[in-house]
Amino acid sequence: MSPDADGPAVDVPDAQGPDVDVAALLDALRRAGQTVATAESITGGGVCAALTGVPGSSDFVRGGLVVYAAELKTGLAGVSATLLAERGTVDPDVTAALAEGARTRCGADWGIGLTGVAGPGPSGGIPAGTVHVVVAGPDACETWSLVLPGDRGAVREAAALAALRLFREHLASNMR
Asked: Which pLDDT band, with edges at 50, 70 and 90, does 140 fall under?
């Protein structure tokens, strides 16, 4: 169980499950005639790297923004400076703005945003393992707020996997 952006706990059963078949995910994107872009903080480009590791991905992956610094979240991804000042960099609404920024700034149909604290310790009072993942698409925007176990590497890997899972879920429902 993990806290949702609105506070209550939500079950995200496969956030840490088996790997996502990225080639199948990109094939679904191809069939839909759509594109994707990322704006990543905690994962440092890991989601975009996973997507672009598949041959032919340049037809569907528009780009990726790695935005660790707050001023880059504003300058590159278009996150409001006011929102950042009010909420901080690790926040569901900031993550949603990153996803939408990736989508609009890169000219993609889908945007994936990630923020969080990988550890080893807390940052700004936010515990290590706290992760926010957002997928923004043509008709929907969904946030998963997670608390992931493990060391820095495990948290970052699980965050990237959760983002791919959430994207797969939305892409599949968009094609129905």
From this structure: confident
Q: Which two tokens stand for residue 120?
A: 């080893």
Measured distance CA(45)–CA(24) in Å, rounded: 20
The dihedral through the CA atoms of 33, 39, 45, 47 has a sign that is negative
Where do the domains of the chain lie, and which CATH numbers do they carry? 2-6+19-174 (3.90.950.20)
DSSP conformation letters of 20-64: P-HHHHHHHHHHHT--EEEEESTTTTHHHHHHHTSTTGGGTEEEE
CB 41 within 8 A of CB 73: yes
Q: What is the pTM of this model?
A: 0.90
d(CA 113, CA 90): 11
Residue with token string 């149909």: 109
DSSP 20: P
